[in-house]
Fold this protein.
Amino acid sequence: MSIKSLSTFLALASLANAALIRRFTCPSGQVVSKMECCGLFPILENIQDNLFEGGKCGEDAHSALRLAFHDSIGFSLNRDIGGGADGSIITFGSTELEYSANSGIDEIVKSQEPFIGQYDISAGDFIQFAAAVAVSNCPGAPRLEFLLGRPAALRAAADETVPEPFHDATTILDRFKDAGFEPAEVVALLSSHSIAAADLVDSSVPGSPFDSTPYAFDSQFFIETLLRGESYPGKGPNEGEELAPEALKGEMRLESDYFLARDSRTACYWQQYIGQEDKMANDFRAAMAKLAILGQDREKLTDCSEVIPVPKPRIGKAHLPAGSSPEQIEQSCYDYPFPTLTADPGPATAVMPV
Ligand code: CA
Ligand code: CA
């Protein structure tokens, strides 16, 4: 190559580079790679301030993630039961919110509807965007993918698409399989229960969390669900409720989580997340990316993940709660030794409602 052709080559190469990193400045000042994503920044600011209490991993953040799941899972690879992640749970709320599995979801729908009305965004996009922003508020969580461009929902999803806490492992795994998820992905999605609570399983104790750190995305959920159950947080047992550990008074254990933690098809995936928060976060991100576009064509959507805030780093380290001991672990995976965990010192402390 002559000096002249080399310099032409270098000039072309730098032009190609410039095209790859083309940037746009949004009217709101942020620099992005795709102009279509600019419209999301005002929504981000608004929901952080006015829906998520200034960017907290609180009850509304938990509910936004739950809503995204309930909307998306109305989908099947094998039957015509709904359009998946299409916003139908809001657009056809008068139908879907009557389903028993969606009880309590009406609250977050009511909170989100006014925001959707203010912007040029579909209900399906808004639900997934709000969920990704909500997750970013939880320390240790992955930065979820967000794709923009879901069209308006065409119809309500059928009833009985959402797994219920009283379902057994086979019923749950079959429903997920029907929607395209393998058992490993089901466990990855259940990482969401690290930042979740139940209001209506026992309405005498609303906001009962599923682990002792409902404000942090960590592996405590996978540890604590394996502790021997001894008591209920309220007036249990209720439908879908299982005994919870005595050392975690106030924590709610769902029957479905109890089953999947101990089922031979899922127990090793469950155990592998204990103390392996990076893997847990990566797998959750991948499973959520799939869930968020069920029923949609990825090629027709625009990647606006750059708008999602970078979550705060992980807090705390995998541990047994104070007042518990390794003997109380009901190990259910026999392929790998159980990770070594030490109990926090001192007496058991109550788990506060969210
Ligand atoms: Ca839907
Ligand atoms: Ca947690």
